[in-house]
Amino acid sequence: MFINEETLKLEYQVESKEKGLKVIDVIASHMHISSRLIRKCKSNHNILLNQKKTSVNQIVSKGDIITLMLDHDENTFEPNPIEIDIAFENADMMAINKPPFLVVHPTKGHPEGTLANAISYYQYRSNQNFKTRFINRLDRDTSGIVLIAKSAYAQQFISEQMQKDEVDKIYYAVVEGVVSEDKGTINAPIERAEDGDILRVVRPDGLPSITHYEVAERFNGYSLLKVKLETGRTHQIRVHLAHIGHGIVGDHLYGKCSDWIDRQALHCFEMSFRKPRGNERIVVNASLPEDIRKLIEVLRNL
Q1: What residues are paired with 184 via a beta bridge?
Q2: In what residue span(s) does the Pseudouridine synthase RsuA/RluA-like domain sit (predicted)?
Q3: Domain 86-300, CATH among 3.10.580.10, 3.30.160.390, 3.30.2350.10, 3.30.565.10
């Protein structure tokens, strides 16, 4: 079991069931370290057994301490004084409630003033220094939870869960029209409309894409949906809801603009995953932002 909470140091105490295994077996199968990271630690002599450098073929005993020292990768983003809403943080990762209209990381069009720059500023103020590794991303106009890893180990651990669809992702969306069925599943492959195009469409040769939804509330001509992603394609919720005739309110790309909100009414409300250094499941929530709450009030009073 893991016995420490330090960003760039992993310490694991060998349990009875692991007695007689090689160091490499414990690291790979019980600490869940990727082969790439093992090779890197091995080549840099960053694997210790009971505080001494060791061969990865050394046999372990109950109570032995295996230590991996992770490389320190410098933060490369300029700090910008932007406040962030931290929903969860430990030595390995952060979960941030991203507001709408904030770009996740610098681009040609947005070289600064991004979430990455805000995290850099937070690091400066909290006396931390880690490379910001985004595990998931949200569109500029979508609000809600963004996960950030503080080390290559944490990124690999949670990204593998993402790839296996083991991370539960729940969104809220306000959509056009009254959705008649209380619950439903949209199973429709998604692909780019054209090569290099940002627009995605449902088409037979697309990637498998599955979205589950249930109606949280119905209004006069609109619906509030609770949406759960089974897969995570670019623009998946926006494409799927438009595909079934219930485009997201304010979505100018896949629907139409709204007089009541100046972005798509889509919010990543909850994410659930196994945290690094153990199998404990973490559930992170981010409350609905003010603009979506106001939109819902308007629709209730139509």
Answers
A1: 213
A2: 93-243
A3: 3.30.2350.10
